[in-house]
Automatic annotation (TrEMBL), chain A:
GO terms for molecular function: 2 iron, 2 sulfur cluster binding; metal ion binding; oxidoreductase activity. This is Ferredoxin-NADP reductase. Keywords: 2Fe-2S, FAD, Flavoprotein, Iron, Iron-sulfur, Metal-binding, Oxidoreductase. The keyword DNA-binding does not apply. InterPro entries: 2Fe-2S_ferredoxin-like_sf (IPR036010), 2Fe-2S_ferredoxin-type (IPR001041), Beta-grasp_dom_sf (IPR012675), Cbr1-like_FAD-bd_dom (IPR008333), FAD-bd_FR_type (IPR017927), FNR_nucleotide-bd (IPR039261), MRET (IPR050415), Riboflavin_synthase-like_b-brl (IPR017938). CDD domains: fer2 (cd00207), FNR_iron_sulfur_binding_2 (cd06216). Gene3D superfamilies: 3.10.20.30, Nucleotide-binding domain of ferredoxin-NADP reductase (FNR) module (3.40.50.80), Translation factors (2.40.30.10). Signal peptide: none annotated.
Automatic annotation (TrEMBL), chain B:
Residues 1-28 are annotated as: Disordered. One of its GO terms (cellular component) is membrane. This is Linoleoyl-CoA desaturase. InterPro entries: FA_desaturase_dom (IPR005804), Fatty_acid_desaturase (IPR012171). One of its GO terms (molecular function) is oxidoreductase activity, acting on paired donors, with oxidation of a pair of donors resulting in the reduction of molecular oxygen to two molecules of water. One of its GO terms (biological process) is lipid biosynthetic process. Residues 1-15 have a biased composition (Low complexity). PANTHER family: DELTA(5) FATTY ACID DESATURASE C-RELATED (PTHR19353:SF19), FATTY ACID DESATURASE 2 (PTHR19353). Residues 98-357 form the Fatty acid desaturase domain. It comes from the Bacteria.
């Protein structure tokens, strides 16, 4: 998807452009020949890691607490950043204790802030990255970025009436939308959080409510219980007439989808699903080799290399004892255990990890890109 | 990887073997005084040491390798810039010296160690064994296969570790003597000068191809990759940078040639010191069958030698001055070898094992001594060595006559059955 405002190279047939383009290409070839086996960018990165044309990175400008359980980061992306659409997310790579870890976050800042985006990170129990962001990350740090992506956005022509149904940190992409103008003429926000104290952005939402931009309905589930789709009739009686954007825990979204489908209004519901970050960890498990189209059950003491070969897949291999690194393959989902040390390595589609298949066994269901 | 594909998984092997006082070849067995329990105890102790260090890797280690890479790139860029004016003697001297140091660090502390996967744990796609390419004749992929697999798995096993003499040197009495070993001091001297090309040929397994043990198609595919790399390497050092220097072209070309040759001589010396000095053990094929983890560790420790020296020495050798520690834990970040070295030495001495180390000049001299010593056949009672050499020479001359009669075509034997 092309973001609005992205610079598109204009086709030009004017004389004079061609020689310049040729010269540019020639210079690039020359620079490549000078730098081989590195690429010229490796040397340019020494001078300016945020320049245009560099791999996308960003500099953290501010790290601020957002209520008791969350942190808002202000980041200045490198010059290659393309403006996002409200509601989209980006992948951010942090170096935590020397290890690069990627996570996806919704962009909460309005479009068009000059060279700045913000994301809000909620602290998760045992979360390596969220705790690092809260406790250790300092302004000035360079982080790694992807371009903004995602379909959870308002259409270019917003519908006259919208309902935003959110829970917990599912509010963040919606916040990214609510901070832009124009909003749909008639907006209702139904937000659930465990308690008033833990609810993100409550002051800002209340201000929007008081100014008449939105109608805010809050539900504090510790006292009031979880909001069921059936409750909608009493909270937002005209929900059937609205386009709805919903973001929150999987169970909530499943319920919503069933409810909208039952009403024959499935096309009016737009959802954003955060992938579950908790993986089943066990001893052994089903190993899927995605490109080979093979899934096999592997016990806790059999290496993924052996299991793959036993299933008839040609696996890269070498020393078969964990020292030569010729067997590494990308683990894209699930956990594996190093048979030498018992250490667990976990990967998600946002944060794939290369693992040594000759000394690793599945620890729960896992998927390799091979 | 034909040789390794069918092998059973080595990490689960647990059969300790009988230890005789001497090896089948007649050499004293350096581990005869250890019981099987002691050997497995050593294995457990080293495993624990590995876990301790690997679990403590963190931001400081990451900052170290990034710092070295940054420093090396600045040094290389600055040296190349200075060499644009290499017609002026001070620029020539400073540029050549800087480029030599940059090229050495690029190969040793950076390239070699990244390709060992020492920094894979950072999950930085730019500093990773699967993506790194280095300023060296042999493509990273090919080197990783021959070096990391064959050499690091079969360290100093006669007939299995091709690094044991790089196919051409005889450095051990258990290696069969052939006529060409007579000239190995000269061969070795030229190997040092053109080291990277020797390694490239050896990674390609040119010898295996000639003898028919390496598949022809596979060889040609590898050769294509290697030639492409070689072309780019040559173009950079001997065409593009010189031409860019304009009037200083010839001086820059000379500077680049000197830097490459000096690096060849240096890396050859460092690697030469890793496994050939006096006191380093070699092993026989039988001795590694059913090898346990403890026995594998022992072979790595006894088959390697360190170089003592300053921090600069360790950096310039890519910490291969800690060859013993590197062979125990090839994927441990190189900046940690110095930290564990005293403990490895203590462990070896506690078990009556020799920790071979010494300053560079002594280790180089010791290794060269072997090259001279084993250029001649072994001393045996009742056999004149002069007679043995002259017989071999006569046979060799006959062979040349036979094979060149009528044609000058090299013979390619059929593939040997596996």
């Amino acid at each position: 998807m092309t973001a609005p405002g992205a610079a598109q190279p204009k086709a030009s047939s004017r004389a004079g452009v061609r020689p310049i383009a040729l010269l540019g290409r020639g210079l690039r070839t020359l620079a490549g020949a000078l730098a081989t086996p590195l690429v010229p960018e490796d040397f340019l990165d020494l001078i300016d890691p945020l320049r245009s044309g560099a791999d996308l990175r960003g500099r953290v400008l501010a790290v601020e607490p957002e209520g008791p359980g969350a942190t808002t980061l202000t980041i200045r992306p490198g010059r290659g950043w393309r403006p996002h659409r409200p509601g989209q997310y980006t992948r951010i790579g942090f170096d935590v204790d020397g290890v690069r870890r990627w996570r996806a976050y919704s962009i909460t800042s309005p479009v068009g802030l000059p060279g700045i985006i913000t994301v809000t990170v909620r602290a998760i129990d045992g979360g390596i990255v969220s705790h690092y962001v809260r406790d250790e990350l300092r302004p000035g740090t360079v982080v790694h970025l992807d371009q903004a992506t995602g379909d959870f956005v308002l259409p270019d022509a917003p519908p006259p009436a919208a309902l935003f149904l959110t829970a917990g940190s599912g509010l963040t992409p919606v916040m990214g939308m609510l901070r832009n103008r124009p909003l749909p003429a008639d907006v209702v926000v139904v937000h659930s959080a465990p308690t008033r104290r833990e609810s993100l952005f409550l002051d800002e939402l209340s201000a929007l409510h008081d100014d008449g931009h939105i109608r805010l309905v809050t539900r504090f589930t510790a006292d009031e219980g979880i909001l069921r789709p059936a409750d909608l009739d009493s909270v937002v009686p005209d929900w059937r007439d609205r386009h709805t954007w919903a973001c929150g825990p999987t169970a909530m979204l499943d319920d919503a989808q069933a409810h909208w489908e039952a009403a024959g209004l499935a096309d009016r519901l737009h959802t954003e699903r955060f992938r579950p970050t908790v993986h089943a960890v066990g001893d052994g498990g089903a190993m899927t080799l995605a490109r080979s189209g093979v899934t096999v059950d592997v016990d806790a003491s059999t290496t993924m290399l052996d299991a793959g070969e036993d299933a008839g897949v040609l696996m890269p291999s070498g020393c078969r004892m964990g020292i030569c690194f010729n067997c590494v393959l990308p683990l894209v989902e699930g956990s594996v255990r190093d048979l030498r040390t018992g250490d667990l390595t976990t990967a998600t589609p946002e944060d794939p990890v290369l693992v040594q298949t000759c000394v690793s066994a599945p620890a729960g269901p896992c998927r390799l890109n091979h | 990887m034909n040789t390794t594909q069918t092998r059973t998984n080595r990490i689960t092997t647990t059969t300790p073997q009988l230890r005789e006082a001497t090896t089948p070849g007649g050499k004293p067995n350096p581990i005869a005084h250890l019981t099987a329990e002691e050997i497995e105890g050593i294995g457990r102790e080293l495993d624990a040491l590995r876990d301790e260090v690997m679990n403590s890797r963190g931001a400081d280690d990451a900052a170290y390798i990034r710092g070295v890479i940054k420093m090396q790139r600045w040094l290389e860029a600055a040296s190349r810039l200075v060499l644009l004016f290499s017609k002026f003697p001070p620029a020539f001297v400073a540029g050549t010296a800087g480029l030599t140091v940059a090229k050495i660090i690029e190969n040793t502390e950076i390239g070699h160690n990244i390709l060992h996967g020492q920094w894979d744990w950072m999950r930085d796609e730019k500093i990773h064994s699967t993506t790194w390419e280095w300023d060296f004749a042999s493509p990273a992929e090919q080197w990783k296969k021959s070096h990391n697999v064959e050499h690091h798995t079969y360290t100093n096993v006669v007939g299995m570790d091709n690094d044991l003499g790089y196919n051409i040197l005889r450095v051990d009495p258990d290696q069969e003597w052939k006529l060409n070993h007579l000239f190995q001091p000269i061969t070795n001297f030229f190997t040092a000068l053109f080291f990277e090309y020797g390694i490239a040929a050896y990674d390609l397994d040119v010898k295996g191809w000639k003898e028919g043990t390496k598949d022809h198609k596979e060889f040609m595919a590898d050769l294509k990759v290697a030639l492409k790399k070689l072309r780019a390497q040559f173009a950079k050092d001997y065409v593009v940078h010189p031409l860019l220097s304009g009037p200083s072209a010839l001086h820059t070309l000379a500077a680049n040639a000197i830097a490459n040759t000096a690096r060849n001589v240096w890396t050859h010396a460092v690697i030469f010191c890793g496994h050939f000095p006096e006191g380093v053990e070699t092993f026989e094929t039988e001795s590694i069958e059913g090898e346990t983890r403890g026995e594998w560790y022992l072979r790595q420790m006894l088959g390697s030698a360190n170089i003592s020296g300053s921090k600069l020495m360790h950096l310039m050798s890519g910490n291969l001055s800690h060859q013993i520690e590197h062979h125990l834990f090839p994927d441990m970040p190189s900046n940690r070898y110095a930290q564990i070295a005293p403990r490895v030495q203590e462990l070896m001495e506690r078990h009556g094992l020799r920790y071979v180390t010494g300053p560079l000049h002594r280790q180089v001299a010791s290794a060269w001594k072997k090259v001279f010593k084993y250029s001649l056949p072994n001393k045996r009672d009742g056999v004149s060595r002069l007679r043995e050499v002259t017989d071999a020479a006569r046979e060799g001359v006959d062979e040349v006559f036979r094979s060149t009669r009528g044609m000058l075509r090299p013979t390619r034997r059929r593939a040997l059955p596996a």
